[in-house]
Structures are given as C-alpha cells and as structure tokens.
Specification:
Shape: globular
Distance between the termini: 42 Å
Strand content: 25-35%
Radius of gyration: 15 Å
Number of strands: 6
Strand order of the largest sheet: 1-2-3-6-5-4
C-alpha cells in the first residue's frame, strides 16, 4: 500500500469527517454541494431508526436516478440497511428528503459505472481506486464493491 492509499483510506474511515456534511444537508443547505453528493436517509435494519450518510454520486444515468458506491464494501451499514429496506429518502441539490427506491446493480452494470467514473474524474479515481480495490478484495466472492441505484419515486 502506498502512502496515498493509506491516506485516502484513513480519511474515508474518519467518522466525524465523513459525517460533517450531514448537518449541512439537514440545515437544508445541501445545494452547496451541487449534484456531486447526496444525503441518503435510510432505516436501520435492527433499530428501525432513521440513519443518514452522505455519498458521492458516481453516475446519473437519467433524470431522477443517482448511482452511489459502497466504497468500503458490502459491510457498510448504509448498504446493508438499504438491502433490508429499499425505500429511502434522498436530498440532492435543491431536492430535500425526496422518496426513492434503492436497487443494487449487477456486476456488469457496476463495471460500467466504474469505467465511466474513471473517465469523467481521473484525478479523483486515482485516489479512490486503491480504496475500492481493497474493498473488492474484502468482498471477494460476493461480486465486488456494491453499487446502488437510487431512483426517485
């Protein structure tokens, strides 16, 4: 693992840093992030309580559809929660708490998302690729890094 790889991994695993944008979205200031990030509101699979995570939008295949990646692999809590309950709410741009439906993409669809993302954001991809590859190694036989489409309902 290179120095940059370990730096990116540590940043992505720093809880307070990754949760800071949630308060910006909850204050209805999510438009400051444009459409590159979104707030995903999901239900805890055990607690039944509302949970929140800010994720980068990896692709927008069509209007009202946002694709996000579980960059830390299939053990991410938000990913496990949306598998258990796919009815979610998203805040992105000027949209606040819009109902949506979550669907995990198959491996072929996910590969297409990664290829498109790498071409559109080469500098960011160089930093994130080792983290995604590590998560894919952890995922192993489960098919790689989970990619989820969030479609407004």
């Amino acid at each position: 693992m290179t120095r940059r790889d370990s730096w990116a991994g540590r940043v992505l695993r720093t809880r307070w840093l990754m949760r800071a944008p949630i308060w910006i979205y909850r204050a209805r200031l999510g438009f400051l992030f444009g459409s590159r990030l979104l707030l995903l509101e999901h239900v805890g699979r055990r607690s039944g309580l509302a949970r929140y995570v800010v994720l980068e939008v990896a692709a927008r295949p069509e209007a009202g559809s946002y694709v996000v990646v579980s960059g830390l692999g299939p053990s991410s809590q938000w990913f496990r929660n949306v598998l258990a309950e796919p009815r979610v709410r998203i805040s992105v741009g000027r949209h606040h708490r819009r109902p949506a439906w979550a669907r995990q993409l198959d491996v072929q669809e996910a590969r297409g998302v990664f290829a498109t993302y790498a071409a559109a954001h080469p500098r960011t991809w160089r930093v994130l690729e080792p983290v995604v590859e590590q998560a894919a190694d952890v995922a192993g036989a489960s098919g790689g890094v989970p990619v989820v489409e969030l479609r407004l309902t």
